[in-house]
Each structure stands twice: as structure tokens, then as C-alpha cells.
Amino acid sequence: MTKTRFYAIGYDLMTERGICDWTLGTHNKKMSCGTCSFNDKKISLSSHFLRLNSDDVIINTIKHEIAHVLAGQGVGHGVVWKSICRLVGCVPSRLNDIAIMPKGKWLYRCTTCEKEYTFHRKPKRRKGCGVCCENYAGGKFDERFVLELKK
Ligand SMILES: [Zn+2]
Ligand SMILES: [Zn+2]
User: Fold this and answer.
1) By C-alpha distance, which of 98, 94, 102, 60 is closest to 76?
2) Is the pLDDT of residue 4 over 70?
3) Least enclosed by CB within 10 Å: which of 70, 101, 143, 145?
4) Near ion ligand 2, which residues have CB within 5 Å?
5) Ligand nearest to C-alpha 69
6) Does pTM top 0.90 for this prediction?
7) For residue 90, which ligand has an atom nearest its CA?
8) DSSP secondary structure string, the chain?
9) pLDDT tens digit sequence for 124-147
10) How far is the CA of 107 from the centre of ligand 1 (A)?
């Protein structure tokens, strides 16, 4: 999706939800698809993310960020935000599971579900498998699902 199209769709969606004082922008982050800054009142999507993903995924992400704006600062991906997602019409989950981002050179794998994760820098702390922690550990980090470095 081009930036122009992202702005057209994004501003339309924001207006639909009565958000008039926020702006849209792009950034060049490789690890974050989208951000929502309450200080600047700005929703930004990664230019890599816009380049690599389908319209459906991008529109879902714009709605995901709009839900953050409506939910307010500091509520994260909790119950309030999730109920607003249903209203706005986006998938109430973190973005990394559905988005395609440039691959990092550090490849890790979950030994439970075999899902692979890549990182641009070697993770400083141990990482858990997002899918397994979500499914079996109530979304919290769990020793059982620590990712292993794949050579
Ligand atoms: Zn989010
Ligand atoms: Zn897993």
C-alpha cells in the first residue's frame, strides 16, 4: 500500500470514529508495525510494514491503533481495548502474529509449536513463544516456552 493510500484510508477511518485531532505518519522501524503516540497525537505505521503487507492486514492495523486512541493511554492490550476492537472491527490481538515484517538474522524457534521468530538484534533477555504463552500461560512469559536459537 502506498503512503497516499494509507493516509486516505486512515483519515477516513479516524473521521468515522470521531477522531479529528490526530495525525498519521510513517516511520522506518523494522520491528514495530505501528505505533500510537498520545504525546504527539499521532498514529504511525512502518514503511516496511506498508510495503510488505496486504490491504486487509494494513486496514486491521490502522483500526488496531484507532482502538488504542479510543481506549486511552496506559490501558495497553487489556479488556477495555479488546472491547473497543470489537466495536471498531479489528482483530483484538497484538499485531506481530499476522503482520509480515523484514526478517532479522537471528532465528529462534519454539520447541512446543515449532513457530519461528526472527530478531534484528540478539535478544538480551530470554523470549517466550507468544502463541504458546497466550494459549497455555494466560499471556504471561512462561519458562516452558522459551525460544531456542536455531543455527
Ligand atoms: Zn497495540
Ligand atoms: Zn510455541
Assistant:
1) 94
2) yes
3) 143
4) 110, 112-113, 115, 129, 131-132
5) 1
6) no
7) 1
8) --HHHHHHHHHHHHHHTT--S-EEEEE--SS-SEEEETTTTEEEEEHHHHHHS-HHHHHHHHHHHHHHHHH-TT-TTSHHHHHHHHHHT--SS-GGGT---PPPSEEEE-TTT--EEEESS--SS--B-HHHHHHHSTTS--GGGB-EE--
9) 999 999 999 999 999 899 999 999
10) 24
Instruction: Report all structural domains of the chain as residue ranges with CATH numbers, in order of start.
Output: 3-88 (3.30.2010.10), 106-149 (no CATH)
Q: Which ligand is nearest to the CA of 71?
A: 1
Q: Which ligand is nearest to the CA of 145?
A: 2
Residues 5-39 pLDDT 10s:
999 999 999 999 999 999 999 999 888 899 999 99
Q: Give the model's pLDDT for residue 102.
A: 84
CA of 17 to the centre of ligand 2 (A): 36
Ligand nearest to the Cα of 115, by number: 2
